[in-house]
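Lab notes, practical 5.
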Amino acid sequence: REPGVDYNRTLNITIEPASLEGIIYDDVNNNSIFDDGIDVPLSNAYVTIQDRISMNQYLAISDENGHYNFSNIFPSIYEITVKHNEIEIYRDDILFLSPGENVYNITKPKPARIEGTAYYDRNENGEYDEGEELSNVNVTLIYPDGERVVSSIITNETGHYMFDNVTPGDYRLNATVYNESTGRMAYAKEIDIHLDENQTEIVNISVELMKIKVSGYTIYDGSPQGSVSLIFSPANVENNTAEMEATLSNETTGSYEVLLKPGIYTVTASADVFDSETNTTIHYGYTGEITIYPGQAPLTNFDIILSEEE
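Output from the prediction step:
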C-alpha cells in the first residue's frame, strides 16, 4: 500500500422490502385452490410471523374475505402461525420471504372427531371395563383458555359421548355428574387433549368421586376434648369406595374437619390425657360408623362422643 492513499470505499446496498399476503379459507371442494363462492374464507384469524434471525414479530388479522397482509417487512426467514378461535390451526417454522410480493394462502385443517366412554373405575385397574360406564354424565369440550365452551353433550345409557367436526388443536374435556337431590357435584374429571387433523381420537373418561367435608367436635362428658386422634378407615363391605383419612382435633376447641371420599367408614377416636390430681393417664375412645353419599351436602355436626376406657 502506498502511503497517503485512501483505500476506503463506500458501497450502498439497497434491499427492496418484502410483503406477504394471502387468504385463509376452508377448502370445501378439497382442490387446494381458493375458489370464490365455493370455499369459505375465515375472518378474524390471527396471523403471526416472526423473523427467525432478528426475532422481530408482526401480527395481522384476516378480514371478512379471509385476506391478510403484511407490508414493508425485511426479507428473511420467518416462522408463521395462525390462530382461529384461539386454536392454532396452522404453523410453518420456515417461510422464506424474498424481496417484493409474496403470496401465501392457508387452508383450514380438516376437522377431527373425539369420542369415548365416561365411566367410574370401580376395580381401580386404570382402564374402562364393561359395566363401569355411567349415563347422564355432562361432558363439555372447552377451548384452551378454560372458559369458552365448544359444545356439551350428555352420555347415553352406555356412557358414550362424541364431538364431531372439531377444529384440530388443544382442548380440555370436562365431565361432571350432579346429585339430583342436592344439586351438588358427585363425580368430576378434567382432561387436556390434542386433536389431529382428520383423525378420530378415542378418550375414555374415568370420573372421580368428589370428596365431602365432614366436621364436628370431639366431646367427653359434655365438654370439648382436644388433641383427639381420628381415623376414618374403609369398612369391610363389598364394593366400598371409601379411602382412609386421619386427622387430629383442635387441642383447644376440640373441633375437627376432614374430606372424605363417598363410601362406608369405620370411625375410631382415641386420646390419652394425664390427670395430675390422680397422677394417672386417662384413655378416651370411640368407635362408630358413617356413610358418605356421592354429592351429599357437607356433614357439619358429626360429633364424636368419647367415653373413658379401662
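Observations recorded by the TA: The mean pLDDT is 93. The domain at 212-309 is CATH 2.60.40.1120 (Immunoglobulin-like).
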